[in-house]
Amino acid sequence: MSPTMKAIIYTEPKQSRLVSDRPLPQIRENTVVVKVVAVALNPTDWKHVAMGMAKEGCLLGVDYAGTVEQSNSPEWKKGDRIAGFVHGGNANNIEDGSFAEYIVAPLATALRIPENVSFEEASTLGCGVTTVGQGLFEKDYGLGLNLPTNPITTPATVLINGGSSATGTLGIQFAKKAGYTVIATCSPKNFDLARSRGADEVFDSRDPATGKKINEFTQNSLRYAWDCLGGKESGQLCAEALTTNPGASFATIRSTEFPRQDVKYFMTMAYVGIGEDFDKGQSQSRDNQGHAQWQRGFWKIAHDLLAEGQLKVHPVRAEKGGLEGVLKGLDELQEGNVSGQKLVYSL
């Protein structure tokens, strides 16, 4: 094995580039070294660059699939097929990331790829599974819904705003497996995608009246709203959709202006699920081991649903060019030219 590899890294000022002399990563506690076969792209990848959240030399990317190259864990051996989520653009440890030939991957947010799932399909799961677990199911951090392993016995409804996003389509399926009625919002062109993943009702996310329409449709009874998009408009939509009675909860994937003080508000960040301390800008995140332990259990549920054929990945748009192609894909994603699909690149 060559002592160096190809990788996409962050460079100042707010740029990313492909290098061919990146040192190989070193295994750490609760990690494995992975030979990457495929990577998928997420908005957080380009945002870390555009917003300058990384630092010089940081490896970028969060989603991956590949084979275990080195392991100190009895659960994993060389050659095992693995997929998961890593902390790309981590200013606290520049080795973390997925856009490279070899990576160091945390075991809290990883699964063994079932035989019925390809590397390309598995590469789409990392950020989505982690975020779904937090936003919908983790108690005292997200909405705290019942897990698919303990489905509800009394009818309840959850709104998923951004239901055709890569995270939203997974969220719909997990919520349905847990017994919930799911209302999704997305653009009309993606209604069929949301329905194909199990959404019971779909509303137009771009219609300013959608929040009020959902409130009327549910007869002012909606207690749970999960926002996969973020932004003032999303917060307003969910606030209008939720019941005006006590006991409503709202969770979002990023800081969102929310106009109601009577609703429990949760903002999740996928990176805490890995379990390591980190800093983002002026904010610090510490003591995340409990989140990581919770994620281990949730990723086991995800694995089992996949293996049983009960969980569909987001539609894959396989692109060519390897890591060189990834740079072009990040531009396309940032320009808003990707909808209802996940960009995937094989290395």
Automatic annotation (TrEMBL):
Domain Enoyl reductase (ER) residues, every copy: 11-344
Cell inner membrane found in the keyword field: no
Pfam families per record: ADH_N, ADH_zinc_N
Keyword annotations: Oxidoreductase
Example GO molecular function: oxidoreductase activity, acting on NAD(P)H
Cleaved signal peptide residues: none
Keyword Oxidoreductase in record: yes
The organism's place on the tree of life at top rank: Eukaryota
SMART domains the UniProt entry points to: PKS_ER
Protein family membership: Belongs to the zinc-containing alcohol dehydrogenase family.
Protein name: Enoyl reductase (ER) domain-containing protein
